[in-house]
Amino acid sequence: MSLKRVGLTTGLVAAMVLGTSVPAMAQTEETGERHRPRLERFCENVPDHIERVEERLARIQGDADTRGSIAWLEVKQAEAEEAGRDNLATMIGHRIAIKTELIDVLEARLAALADAEVFCEELPEEGSFVRHYF
Questions:
Q1: Residue 79: how many other CB atoms lie within 10 Å
Q2: Using an 8 Å Cβ cutoff, are 73 and 96 in contact?
Q3: For the chain, what is the radius of gyration of the CA atoms?
Q4: Which is it for the CA torsion 29, 31, 33, 35, positive or negative?
Q5: pLDDT in tens, 74-130
């Protein structure tokens, strides 16, 4: 997954959590209830998204035996340098830099998903949606 896609997904989750995506449209009860099925589907998927992000963070932050972790890549980079494969070592160094930046992105996404989880727990009963949130 590219950093651009991670950033866009994080922005979408933040927009959903903060409610900035629909306030102009949600002026009537009918409009608010129209969006309720989408919110319910979103809320159903939040735990799965949290699990995926946590798994990704665990892999990236794993030890040298965890394939794909930063520590594993550092070992591979050292092996490439010892073998005189400077181009490969440089490429692996770039991967390490990207994964290091990805940690911040994933932690921000995890925080946004935690906020979304709280939002979903507070989602009111059907019929009172608009009066409560808009």
A1: 13
A2: yes
A3: 21
A4: negative
A5: 999 999 999 999 999 999 999 999 999 999 999 999 999 999 999 888 876 665 554
Over the chain, what is the mean pLDDT? 81
- Helix/strand/coil (H, E, C) string of the chain? CCHHHHHHHHHHHHHHHHCCCCCCCCCCHHHHHHHHHHHHHHHHHHHHHHHHHHHHHHHHCCCCCCCCCHHHHHHHHHHHHHCCCHHHHHHHHHHHHHHHHHHHHHHHHHHHHHHHHHHHHCCCCCCCHHHHHC
Cα Dmax for the chain: 68
Determine how many CB atoms are found less than 10 A away from the CB of residue 58. 11
| Token pair listed for 116 | 């979304």
Centre a 10 Å sphere on the Cβ of residue 51 and count the other Cβ atoms it contains.
Answer: 11
Sorted by where each begins, the domain ranges of the chain are 3-16+25-133
